[in-house]
Design brief:
Blueprint lengths: L1 H28 L5 E8 L4 E7 L2 H5 L4 H14 L4 E7 L7 H13 L4 H14 L2 E10 L7 E8 L5 H7 E10 L2 E11 L7
Parallel strand pairs: 2-3
Antiparallel strand pairs: 1-2, 4-5, 4-7, 6-7
Helix pairs in contact: 4-5
């Protein structure tokens, strides 16, 4: 009996690890399409993967060639049994922390000052109707010593059940001449606040 539970835990951990690798692969492959996350579900027929992107046309490709190529790669690389990929457009990309984190990293890569990129992101998120947002950029920002800068706007709960329910966060990394930068974004949603 203990052996069975041990194997169940191993299976769950293996699935978590595979999903993490899959997520990393998809975020690199679909960076231009504005990748905002994926939902992986095992079905009796195979594996159903729902991709959330800002530009679905780039994922699907001409005559569905892009999605066919992606399906083949997922099958070979991750050993997924007959993956079925569906692509959904993110309705409000400004409220998806992953998309905003990627946009900030792209802005910094193109040469925009990190402070300006962070403030742009905060204003964008708030004008989309968020309750609050927080951005932490860490790395060798101004000198050889590594440190971080935090920018906050609105209300972002830090602890308790409220924070787990209404706050979503994402992390993006980018490599520049000075070294590796980390961008952590937290967004608090208005509509997720429980009524008084």
């Amino acid at each position: 009996m203990p052996n069975e539970s041990h194997s169940a835990i191993k299976t769950v951990m293996k699935n978590f690890y595979r999903n993490m690798e899959l997520d990393e692969f998809l975020s690199k492959q679909l960076a231009d399409a504005g990748y905002g996350g994926a939902d992986v579900q095992k079905t009796p027929v195979g594996t159903r993967i729902t991709l959330y992107v800002t530009r679905p046309g780039l994922v699907i490709g001409r005559k569905g060639m892009g999605i066919k190529d992606l399906t083949d790669r997922l099958e070979k690389q991750f050993g997924l049994s007959s993956p079925q990929i569906s692509v959904l457009e993110v309705e409000i990309p400004e409220l998806n922390p992953r998309i905003i984190a990627n946009r900030v990293s792209q802005l910094i890569t193109r040469g925009t000052a990190f402070r300006r990129a962070a403030l742009w992101a905060l204003n964008t998120v708030m004008s989309a109707g968020a309750l609050g947002a927080e951005i932490v950029i860490s790395g060798k920002l101004r000198s050889e010593r590594s440190h971080f800068e935090k920018y906050t706007i609105g209300i972002v709960p830090k602890s308790g059940e409220t924070s787990t329910r209404i706050v979503k966060e994402a992390v993006a990394h980018l490599l520049l001449k000075m070294g590796l930068y980390g961008i952590r974004i937290k967004i608090a949603y208005k509509n997720a606040v429980p009524p008084d």
